[in-house]
Specification:
Blueprint lengths: L5 E8 L9 E8 L4 E5 L6 H9 L6 E6 L2 E2 L5 H7 L3 E4 L3 H4 L6 H11 L7 H9 L15 H13 L5 E5 L7 H18 L2 E5 L3 H7 L2 E6 L2 E7 H6 L4 H11 L12
Parallel strand pairs: 3-8, 3-9, 6-7, 7-8
Antiparallel strand pairs: 1-2, 1-4, 4-5, 9-10
Helix pairs in contact: 4-5, 4-6, 5-6, 6-7
The structure holds adenosine-5'-triphosphate (ATP) and magnesium ion (MG).
The site of adenosine-5'-triphosphate has 12 residues, from helix 1.
Length: about 260
């Protein structure tokens, strides 16, 4: 078939406590070496979509294919093996990294869980992401926010993935560190032909990284296409509002103003 890394077909996610689905009917795909940016206001379902891709929340309808295989309804053990090539980086490394684990073990843990050899991996990953080797013996709280996010990226890369899900990977960082991490991600993408599902509420970040952009509104994708088109000439009224408020430096538009 195609060279797609990841393909979602009409994926919905429903939380038991909510009446409407948090993610509804999402269809998208990502190819090697390309970045799909997901934008949309707080609460529109971006993180839920990321979790559904990773199998961290169950999909209620639709299907996910990774490297051509249907991973939607595998057992946890099958899925762990099938999606070792897909890893996630969360927004806040402070809460996503186990505070009791040292850097070296945080980086190699995904390999250890998957029963793969991990000798020397921590050192080579530290070099790749620009972490000093003496940080390998440190606990997360002994390092800076930027260094912690480098650990999260090193951990995600340890298993030589083809796809990274990046859920606001730079939002918790100050601006100069944000630029360093974005540049690192872009270098790694070029070097390894990684596919990125890149979630951000920051339009400037999306403009910088994305080849394609999907706009989410109330759990659904209302518009998707080439980044230049969606960002410069959005067709859907919600996307237009989103771009306008980003340009004027305001917060994302109030939902009420669009309905
Ligand atoms: N575990 C959960 N149980 C029930 N509802 C949830 C759960 N997690 C998220 N939600 C709800 O699902 C909707 C989507 O949340 P989600 O975290 O995916 O949004 P988001 O787009 O990532 O927002 P943000 O930009 O603030 O991170 C929200 O209404 C949220 O309250
Ligand atoms: Mg989120």
């Amino acid at each position: 078939m195609t060279a797609q890394l990841l393909a979602l077909d009409k994926v919905s996610v429903r939380y038991a406590s909510r009446r409407s689905p948090a993610v509804g009917d999402v269809t998208l795909s990502i190819e090697p070496g390309r970045t799909l940016g997901i934008v949309g206001e707080s609460g529109c379902g971006k993180s839920t979509l990321a979790k559904a891709v990773m199998g961290l929340v169950p999909v209620s309808m639709g299907s996910l294919h990774f490297l051509g295989r249907d991973i939607t309804r595998m057992t946890p053990r099958q899925r762990l093996q099938a999606q070792i090539g897909m890893q996630i980086v969360f927004q806040d490394p402070q809460s996503s990294l186990d505070p009791r684990m040292r850097t070296r073990d945080l980086i190699t843990e995904p390999l250890v869980i998957a029963g793969r050899p991990s000798a020397g991996v921590a050192e080579s990953m530290a070099d790749q992401v620009g972490l000093p080797r003496d940080a390998l013996g440190s606990l997360p709280h002994e390092l800076s926010g930027g260094q912690r996010q480098r650990i999260a990226i090193a951990r995600a890369l340890a298993a030589s993935p083809q796809l990274l899900v990046l859920d606001e990977p730079t939002s918790a960082l100050d601006l100069s560190v944000q630029a360093q991490i974005l540049n690192l991600l872009m270098d790694l993408q070029r070097e390894h032909r990684l596919g990125y599902l890149f979630i951000s509420h920051d339009m400037a970040v999306i403009r910088h990284v994305a080849d394609d952009v999907a706009v989410m509104f109330r759990g659904q994708i209302v518009e998707q296409g080439a980044a230049a088109e969606v960002l410069e000439a959005p067709r859907h009224i919600y996307s237009q509002e989103l771009m306008r408020s980003a340009l004027s430096g305001q917060a994302t538009p109030a939902v009420e103003s669009l309905t």
